[in-house]
Amino acid sequence: MIKAFKKFFRKDNTARPFAGIAVDMHSHLLPGLDDGAGTLEKSLEMIAALGDLGYRKLILTPHIMGDFYRNTPVGIREKLNLVSAAVKDKGWEMELACAAEYYLDEWFLAKVKADEPLLSFGDNYVLIETSYINEPFNFKEIIFSLKAAGYTPVLAHPERYTYLYNRLDALQEIHDLGVLFQVNLNSFSGYYSPAARKVAEKLVELKQVHFVGTDAHALRHLEILPKAAANPYFKKALALPLRNPQL
């Protein structure tokens, strides 16, 4: 294990600032499916680290992108079963589930219109992402199609999309469409950029953060989390009616 996490699943509340969140609903821990954990060993290291921080349930969300990560619900569930069995063998008290982080492209809209079942979590939430630099031309159509199909869209890390920087009106418009927002915890540390941190903090001020997630792809992302917890906006975010504990 890395130095930042010296125990497997601490029993006390020291160094466990994330116990109040309890559930991480955005991570890339399933091995070999995307740009996250490459092996089962890496998956287990990250699960142990998250347990030490206070998490007790992880919803694992590999990328699904039509032209790059062509994951399927069947393949994702197979990897979940593999990791779950390994966690059980170690005797760890960690609940695991799976969903996906869907990239909004033409393949995704086709799935929705064809009524293909999507990997959702909680109350039929579907985690979605867009290009970091370009807004999808058919964003509203996709959102309306998702809602018509009975899903509630959750936009992953809205603070990281450069096309939304200095555009609070655009963020408000997305929110008004019925889209929930999930902020990456490491945004509070400035890990991605000062601009991403600023947007994350503004969303907290506006009380428009519905979920928080680690978006962890590797151990380095988990090493930074304690720094994020030191930001006053971390505590302000936890004071919001976040939906993580309900999962």
TrEMBL record:
Entry GO MF terms: manganese ion binding; protein tyrosine phosphatase activity
Which superkingdom is the protein from? Bacteria
Protein's recorded name: protein-tyrosine-phosphatase
What family is this protein classified in? Belongs to the metallo-dependent hydrolases superfamily. CpsB/CapC family.
| Enzyme Commission number(s) of this protein | 3.1.3.48
Q: Sorted alphabetically, which Pfam families does this protein's record hold?
A: CpsB_CapC
Give, as one word, the top-level EC class.
hydrolase
Q: Which UniProt keywords apply?
A: Hydrolase
Catalytic reaction list: O-phospho-L-tyrosyl-[protein] + H2O = L-tyrosyl-[protein] + phosphate
